[in-house]
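Case study.
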Amino acid sequence: MNGNGNHNARIGVYVCHCGTNIAGKVDVQAVTEFAGKLPGVVVAREYKYMCSDPGQDLIVKDVKEHNLNRVVVASCSPHLHELTFRKTTANAGKNPYLFHMVNIREHVSWVTDDPVAATEKSKALIKAAVLRAFWLEELEPRRFPVNPNVLIVGGGIAGIHAALTLASGGKQVYLVERKPTIGGHMAQFDKTFPTLDCAACILTPKMTAVKQNPNIHLYSLSEVSEVSGFIGNFKVKVKKYPRYIDEAKCVGCGECIEECVYKEGKYPNEFDLGLGKRKPIYMPFPQAVPSIPLIDAATCIEFKSHKCPKGCVDVCGDRDAIDFTQQVQEVELEVGTIVMATGFKVFDPHRLPQYGYGKFPNVYTSLEVERLVNASGPTLGQVVLRDGRRPESVGILHCIGSRDENTNKYCSRVCCMYSLKLAHLLKEKTGAHIYNFYIDMRTPGKGFEEFYKRILEEGVSFIRGKVAEVSGWAQSPAEEGKLVLRVEDTLLGIVRRIPVDMVVLSVGMEPQADVGEVRRLFNLGCSAEGWFLERHPKLAPVDTFTDGIFLAGCNQGPKDIPDTVAQAGAASAQCMALIDKGFVEIEPNTAWIDEELCSGCHVCIAMCPYTAIHFDSEKKVAVLNEALCKGCGTCVAACPSGAAQQNLFRDEQLFAEVEGVLV
Amino acid sequence: MNTNFNPTIVGFFCNWCTYLAADLAGTSRMKYAPNVRVVRTMCSGRVDPQMILWAFRNGADGVLIGGCHPGDCHYQEGNYKALRRTRLLRKMLPQFGIEPERLRLEWISASEGERLRDVVNEFTEQIRRLGPLHAEPAKREAIAA
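After joint prediction, the assembly is written out as follows.
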């Protein structure tokens, strides 16, 4: 097991200072001297920035001058620069897999207090890499074509923008949205900060464009139920839930809604967050896309009793679009890349009972107020309380479910700005006195600070302090019939009681409730809070750890509309780059089975999660299908005779590495 | 207890979760014990029990395997295989004169830099308390066989 591998190994070791990131803790010189004395090492050098052009040139030059056939670089995480140095090795005329990387920054210099210990640990890791390097082999990356079709999951502004961008480039896009209409949260907003553009005016044309674009195939009321394959070659199953109206036949005239046995809306409209009513057959909102009604089977009389006169069917007549027998359909799609634009959910303030949400009728969430101030909302833009009164005073409470040790520690980034916007709109529509209760005002963004100043000048009050409690307990005649906000005004240093008619809770953003299932479906990572993990926070902000799947919008973390659209554009560009290249090269870390050594015990066959191994009953050995192998290596760990091996992670390589770290 | 004893621990960290957690601990500049030396594998399911024994034979005082949380494995279920192998191996270790506490398997996701720091610190302390692995040369050879 501990043989010498390639006896002709000529190894070059390069230790990076990374400025002072490594050299500030690790004695780089001592490490380099140590490396120079290791077996097989022909050259050992240190350099300030190995990843820079001169650093890479150093390697290329050495490989040629000293006839090196192995390169070891000790610098940062292979997740950051493995590819860089593989390319360098290839530029030097060697097979890129004759390179191995040692992580002495993230795993050593940044996490170790004691410089001596950091230096010793670096030496051990470099020795491991050198011993491993003897066993490195020339490999060829596997090349696969990229299917030019793209799947976009989620039809909010992120998904819409990505779909339109890709479709305008001539790519076929499958846009899957779980709700009956695309538009997402943005469709529910009234105006957008800081320009006060009407959200509908800028969003609905894009929604219509989605509908009209022949390259976009929209699946509404649909969810992805299965994902298999890999970058360039994903197979996706989509479950399409019944709308009970045939999308191909319906023209969206809406007469069926008129003819429903319910003359008025009876059930809470989900789109209006229950502030308005709808019939069992309804359009979520007038500009919905697809502009086709749906029937809610839970409330439709025909579904409940089969005794409805079915005016909807009669009025539809020859079009015959209404179909009570629709079932869940499953569609199979083949795509090369996937954009995740699954969005967020707003924080549920029931979790903070001190604010009286659900107890006092005039405590609203900010999203509910968006619907109230919206001209196409349930009150047609009239801001009236639940008892029909017009509010004379409104308290807007910032940071509900954000920057809070008890709920979410992070800042939701948009609440300060939308609170300012709502303050402006509520003042404009009601003339009420508006109080903003804030911890800190956070307005970093183009035109944001200017907007804040404008709202200050409009005469909105700002009180620095987090409201402790919303109560209905009047202590003076002025507080009679009002909601009383108890707050420490931290600028005045006193506790105040402020009576208002209406309370707006500026709720933060949270990951979708089913993010756990979704990330498992797509094999994505999540942060502790449940936001999808980007491949690198700065250098690969829309990539994920699953190649070919990209992120757009708030599923990666709270962000505003401009940032969401920018990210959707970036994700589209990543898809385009892959599609236009036409092929992908995949890490050649597949396993293989040595026929000579295989005893035909079948152990590996049961181990493989991808059924990539089958039994050749004539030869009586296991055979591995490389195209199906994803390179986990569990068959190799299980094989009792050492017949199964994994490229890049051969037994010899790992055993040598283990031996090396134990200097 | 030998407080001067500085144990050497081999860490087998999976590429997708625990290795990234260690990267995150680094970018977050968390400080932890320098005793764990990481060998990267694509999956904790790649960790062959023989590799663990090989580490003990070659002077490791402890072995820490880091994988993805149950249900989160990048390769569906490699971490369960690691769990089964580790449990079985822990039962066998006493036969070689090795305390089973010297082998630990932990689920540490890519976002759990803090957890990585805590596990490494705690495991290092645990091994420090156990002292150096005094496997006799003959027994070490038996492990290798």
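Observations recorded in class. The radius of gyration of chain B is 15 Å. The beta strands of chain B are 9-14, 36-41, 62-67, 103-107. We will return to this complex in the next lecture.
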